[in-house]
Specification:
The protein is an alpha+beta fold and about 120 residues long. It has helices spanning about 30, 60-75, 90-105; strands spanning about 1-5, 10-15, 45-50, 55, 85, 110-115. The strands form three sheets. The chain has a two-stranded antiparallel ribbon with strand order 1-2. It has a two-stranded antiparallel ribbon with strand order 3-4.
Length: about 120
């Protein structure tokens, strides 16, 4: 897909007519891929809930928090208590690494992929 820009602002998505992958077609997600970029509701920083209130955090803080919470859940309830969902936007290699992390790192087979739907 090609992104259309005017005056430094992303304004549209156009299918690549000579692409062998999609043969010049886009799904509904592709046609609207540009719309979220300039949304006032778009999250641009990680948020962590503290005492019921979402507060901005650094990426390091958010990743450390997430890792510690997942580890805490795994230790308390076992690996099968967590599940993971991967993305069709990831490469096969990235999805493979995710399933390895889930199975070897967390001891769970609870992993799925959105493209299967």
């Amino acid at each position: 897909m090609m992104l259309e820009v005017a005056n430094g602002k992303l304004i549209g998505t156009i299918p690549s007519k000579n692409s062998p992958m999609n043969q010049g077609k886009l799904c509904i997600k592709g046609w609207n891929a540009h719309e979220f970029v300039h949304s006032s509701e778009r999250l641009t920083k990680p948020l962590i809930r503290v005492d019921g209130i979402l507060k901005e955090a650094s990426w390091d803080e958010a990743l450390d928090y997430t890792a510690s919470k997942l580890d805490e859940i795994r230790k308390e309830h076992g690996g099968e208590s967590v599940a993971f969902l991967t993305s069709a936007r990831c490469t096969n290699e990235e999805n493979y690494l995710m399933q390895k992390l889930c199975r070897a790192g967390f001891g769970t087979n609870n992993i799925d992929h959105c493209a299967r739907l």
